Amino acid sequence: MAGTLLFVGLTVLSQVGGLILLVCWHVCRYRLFADEARRWLAFVSSGAAYVAITLLLVPGLAALFGRVPMPLFASAEAPVAPRSLLYCLLNRHYVKPRVRDLVIATARQMAEKYPGSHIHYMDGGFPYGPKFPLLPHLSHADGRKIDLSFCYHSGGKYSLSPSPLGYWVYEPPKPDEPAPYKGKPSLFRWDMPFLQGVNRDRKLDEKRTRDLLKTLLKQPGTEKILLEIHLQERLEISHPRLRFQQMQAARHDDHLHLQVE
Ligand SMILES: [Zn+2]
Fold this sequence. Notes:
There is one protein chain. The protein is α+β, with helices and mostly antiparallel strands. The strands form four sheets. A four-stranded mixed sheet has the order 5-11-9-10. Strands 7-6-8 form a three-stranded antiparallel sheet. Helix 8 links the parallel strand 9 and strand 10. The longest helix has 18 residues. Zinc ion (ZN) binds next to strand 5. Zinc ion binds next to strand 5.
């Protein structure tokens, strides 16, 4: 029962993770370490095999489907990193090559202006095919979208987003800012009140976030960016390709959603 739940859960979360773990467990548990006393060895080996296959085998096969993984770690050539390695372990960091190239080009330009700064990404897409839904971001299935973290600072230094996952710790509207959805509950907008106090010493870096948006909007391949209307106003930025989806989409005051042509 627990195995079935793990298989279903991992399949929903990571597309092929459930299958990989099933194969690893079968080989390790029933072929390599059948002895009950060494069951823990099977458990550890299955986990290690899962990580190895996810990082070494899945990317090569994804290329057959026109998907590439986003960088796992930031480097001088590609100052881009996942907000959490969980996105990579769950195969949620696959995109079309032009998305990866655009984000890397943007990150390089940002690093020239802000040395040592990186772009952090969250959900991109799955490695295989455009039909498998990436919950809860249904629009990400085609590999042309990726969610990026805003820029933050703390104690005079660059910092990561307050939320360890990059989502759900919001920059809500101030009293004088527009909030057209106020008092209108929506299935798509999750307020997560219990998370709003997390790491609030990390403040939104408005200047760097505005520059990030401007740099993304200058890239010829950028088709659309989603950002809440009150942040567009606060950051004093407007552009035909910078949009706000009101009630029909998730909140975009904890991250920005980038869509590439
Ligand atoms: Zn998105």
